[in-house]
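To illustrate this point, we now present one chain and its tokenised fold:
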Amino acid sequence: RMGPILLDDVAFLQVGEQVGFVGQVLGIVVADSQEIAEKGARAVSTTYSELDGNAIVSIEDAILANSFWTDFRHTIQRGDVDDALKQSEVDGKKLVVVEGSFRSGGQEHFYLEPNSTLAVPSESATNLTIYASTQAPTKTQDFVARVTNTPAARVVVRMKRMGGGFGGKETRSVFSSVACAVAAKLTNRPCRLTMNRDTDMATTGGRHAFLAKYKAGALVADDGSVKLHAFSVQLFNNGGCKFDLTGPVLDRALFHVDNCYMWPNFRAVGTPCRTSQPPHTAFRGFGGPQGMAVTEHVMDHLAQACNVSGDQLRRTNMYTLQDCTPFGMRFGGKFTGKWNVPSMFDCLYSDLDIPGRRAAASEFNKKNKWSKRGIAFTPTKFGIAFTAKFMNQGGALVHLYTDGTVLVSHGGTEMGQGLHTKVCQVAAQAFGIPLDDVYVNDSSTDKVANTIPSAASMSTDLYGMATLDACQKILKRIKVIRESLPADAPLKDVAKKAFFDRIDLTAHGFFAVDDDRCGFDWAMEKPEDFDDTQPENSWKGHPFNYFTQGVAFAEVEIDVLTGNHKTIRADVLVDVGSSINPAIDIGQIEGAYIQGVGWCTTEEVVYADSDHTWIRPRARVFTTGPGTYKIPAFNDVPETFNVSLLEDASNPFAVHSSKAVGEPPFFLGTSVFYAIKDAVKAARTSDDYFEFRMPATSERIRMACGDYISEECIAAGKASSFQPKGSY
């Protein structure tokens, strides 16, 4: 049995066992060619017996059926939320309370290279070498060894580079590698398994869909100023039929559902739902974007109810250095480093003249009946660390050769994010040699063992520091040699003399985040001797090493008649500390932003559920290829797209004062979603607040406008509350 947390999955479903989802692997056909194998697979006939009742597909289905992983239901609480929301006034200020729900859909990873594995047996099939497109070589090694009954020391997993991963190859690549390894071991012949696109999309799962039910309150003073008072939210995510990483994804959503705002009274409860969808898994952001999207929806709701601008409500309620998060982390200094979001917000707000742009958009909307423009200004903070404490570690192996060149092996994997380049830069700077003299070959479990998946935006932090540690060990050994040679002696002369003096030119480096800067124990009770001057919940741990921060502005234009939209302009400012490689970081921000735009606009995952009864059988995923699933195209890129890195930024908690960059900018793509929502609001004839569900597809935009045309198509008086069908 397999699974990253619970061993609830299998390589092949046995005869007589219950099918978990449509597309679950029953077996594989092994042949001399792909064509023969595919023909053999099509020839297999399978007989199914039917179970009573309908398959549980959506989050709503799971709630009705009480289908949860209850052992992994977690809560973060500060203050007495229920009492706070019952009041009508606090210190002479009126309490305004809003209540509602918000839904965000799933997302397909759509990496360019589908899951692919080559398994090569040797030594009479007692050894296996696995070449896999995976973010998790050690996890692949462990489960190949387990399923094939081979000692882990005889299984080597090698990974040169991936054609994209985005989290989809952290755990859900393992079952295909295991299947391939079983075939190779049984036949004692090399075996390759490469999924086609529709099979990959039907079986590997994706981003978790979320449902939030919330109640929030804010205090309105006589001068019109508004302060957040209390926030209660229930988060549900659709985990599919196996647990995979559903619990940790929901935990990170709980850690981020406050976003950048101070809620004095706060309660967030996360409940993972078990359904008949494929097992859902890690995806860039890992639950953080789903949590923050809820908060931004609630801020819009409160702004309208309190009759203040969303920009004003956001800015006046951002965390300050005196505040702490609901999970007990303080801001600034030795706790999280500099807290830059408020100043970044002010900088971009002023430089872009947001009030002027809003006035111009309003004037445009008055003059155009069927085209409307909207603006959004969105902040983010993203916690950097694995929430599982043991995972915050990494190793590297560095060889210095006698010609002065350096070979680095480390536990991370390259998937286009530039990790190898940054690691090479760290080594080159340590030895004082050109970048071309440093090389990373591949990620292999026989070079660096017991590795952690390349995920959580932690790879440069872990493997950059581990590489630096190894380089410093070698430099310490050769220091006496370097001092005996002329000051301008090249590294190759130093290395050659050190070799003849029998000095080891190989070193293993290791790095682990400090114990007091990672980890969070959900079950820990408040100690009797706890210092009450410390933040609430801080006794449970310090889940993040630091925060990567950013703000984004977006301006869009929608066609009211068709629901199409275009992004006129986007400006993004991100604090990545002292960037190791600004070109790579800007590229990561651009890519993350556009992928975030895709999640909240064009990318809609559709299942055979109660909203889509025409798809059969129930629970089958319909969107299994580019014909039905639309990732962003050239026309979805903002017409004007400006990305900037915060200047004069530093970070004492990571290698060379840098910050993680892979996941944090993803959420900033939702600025386009909230700008669309602003434009839809301008088009609506009703002033009532509305739940604008994610993603903002053309259909959803069109029907949310609620004009007289949609009124005639739906029913009198129902257009303003109508919700197009969706799979959540």
In short: DSSP finds 20 helices and 19 strands in the chain. The mean pLDDT is 97. The CA atoms of residues 414 and 420 lie 6 Å apart.
